[in-house]
Amino acid sequence: MSSPVVEDEWQAALAARDLRAFRLQDFSRALVVAAHPDDETLGVGGLLHRLHDDGIEVTLVLATDGEGAFPDSTPAEKSQLAETRRRELNESLDAQGLDAVRPVWLGLPDSGLSRHRRELTERLAELAKGRDLCLAPWPDDPHPDHQAAGLAMLAAAPVGAHCWSYPIWLWHRLHPDDASIPWDRACRLRLSETDRQRKSAGIAAFASQLTPGPRGEEPILPPAVLAHFERDTEIVFREPPRTSAPEHRFAELYARDADPWRVSTDWYEIRRRAIVSAALPARRYGCAVEPACGIGALTLVLAQRCDRLLAFDPIASAVERTRFACSGRSSVDVRVGSLPADLPPGPQDLLVYSEILYYLDDRDLTATIEASVACLRPGGHLLAVHWRSWPPEAPRDGEDVHRRLLAHPALTPLIEHVEDEFLLHVLERR
């Protein structure tokens, strides 16, 4: 292992990076997972304050009691340390003004979580039901318990939950240019002076980690390590799904609400459709395709500009609504279909991808882009428009989608429209 990185190096490295700001969304119930007592305070103490202050219900789950901090301890000493660390966590939460957050203790063995990951995942899955925000240690953090806790959370989180991870041992065991650090998924939370004071008070409660062990071992959190957690920022990593969004997720949304994204009434949606229409370079198109048509709000707009339009969606109830909306238009064919399998062969004059491509994993997105290029005639247009935020079911955000489209050698960008909420590109097939 290389020598520890001092905080001054990290400060310089973080200052040089243009990291996105972490934004609290309309979360209601958060699940925060820690491998050991103090992980949550060190990694995301300031974020916990924000969640609590915003009235978000926070459930804190401790996978272990942290009894194995000093490996040479006797069983009796480990048992005593477990009791101490439980008490310290409660005192830390009180010191931070988080007295409403009471920990759930799973009691799994410290330094042995990887052997109990299945059990941990199962227990977290029960606790994660109905949560829309899940936080856990970074799955690649250089501590096996942190890795196990992070991976278990990702496996247990509901499909509609936003998942984020927080690094802990990264700061003193890795170098800022380490290739494993996912800077492209990193966000920065700025801490106020009050946040820093509350976090400092919380860390101070963990006396067992700040002082030498029972045989004079070095403290777990010596001053050089603590310096990483005294800075005025916290870093979290977005942990997106690794596979394409499952169709049953969208079926569930449509079963609960016939218009789950309010495409018929929301001004964002209405205005975005008008911009899509205005951005189409040609007055009229021959053959066009609209994958993921939903309930047909954009389909009706496109139908006015196309001689023939194929619209498809994987959700049968949405397809039925689109068929009804387009029932007077013989030029519109509406089917049940999914990407990339049901993209038709060419030649097509226009493809329109609206709020869909970020739901595809790497394999499906690559296949969809290649199939799109293959079915477009030379001079044909591909219009992509996507929300710039990151849907919880999506393996990527809209900006990543558009970067990949713009990088394709067979597509030439014609039109770019960028706003805070969404971005739009029209590309032409060479």
TrEMBL record:
Keywords carried by this UniProt record: Zinc
Superkingdom: Bacteria
The answer to whether the entry has keyword Zinc is: yes
Fetch the CDD domains from UniProt: AdoMet_MTases
Q: Name one GO molecular function term.
A: hydrolase activity, acting on carbon-nitrogen (but not peptide) bonds, in linear amides
Q: Which InterPro entries match?
A: GlcNAc_PI_deacetylase-related, LmbE-like_dom_sf, SAM-dependent_MTases_sf, SAM-MeTfrase_NodS-like
Q: Which Pfam families match?
A: NodS, PIG-L
**GO terms under biological process:** glycoside metabolic process; oligosaccharide biosynthetic process
Stored PANTHER family:
BLR3841 PROTEIN (PTHR12993:SF29), N-ACETYLGLUCOSAMINYL-PHOSPHATIDYLINOSITOL DE-N-ACETYLASE-RELATED (PTHR12993)
Q: What is this protein called?
A: Uncharacterized protein
| Organism in which the protein naturally occurs | Actinoalloteichus fjordicus
